[in-house]
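Before the break, one more example. Copy the sequence into your notebook; we will annotate it together after we see the structure.
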Amino acid sequence: MDTSKTLRRHRIKEQIEMQCLGFIENKIDRYLEIEHQEIIGDHYFAKASIECIYLYRDGYYIGTVMMSHAINEGIIKLLVERNNIQIQKNPDSKKTLEELIEELQNKKLISSKCATASKAIWGSYRADIHHMNSIIKKIDFPKVAQHNIKHLSTIEKEIFSFQTLGRKFTPDQPKYWDTNPDGTINVYLRLE
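Here is what the structure looks like once it is written out:
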């Protein structure tokens, strides 16, 4: 490697190290305030969910909001699928996410707290952000990200709640977990 690249690499390393040290307390505070569910089902959105937590922890608020929208929709799709809820409203249209949330709540498949959290994420400028409408320059992304990540935590704690007794892990709602033929369950760990 030539000297100019080595020097540049060294400067960038020092800059990143200083940034990390300068922001570490804020990152720790943000991470601790989430109080996320430490174990969830190993579903297609599980990896995105932990990355959403890391985005918020690291102060990437727009990414947190966008990711929380997608994870919320993924969880609702899982609930709809596992509870055999029809997504077609009529032959020409499908139910909106909000209608599906209301149906899940009305059928007592989710609590009002979970439904409220899911609707709050859905209503947090989803279409404006997804389509990059000009209104996004007025959005307080740190505040929206904080609310969304906490709402996502509320949803995941309800859907993926479990009990442990010794070394035995028992989901409160087994239909939302994938059980293997040998009785084991695939989980996604999000532990410190």
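The chain has one domain: 35-189. The chain has a mean pLDDT of 91. Try to locate both features in your own notes.
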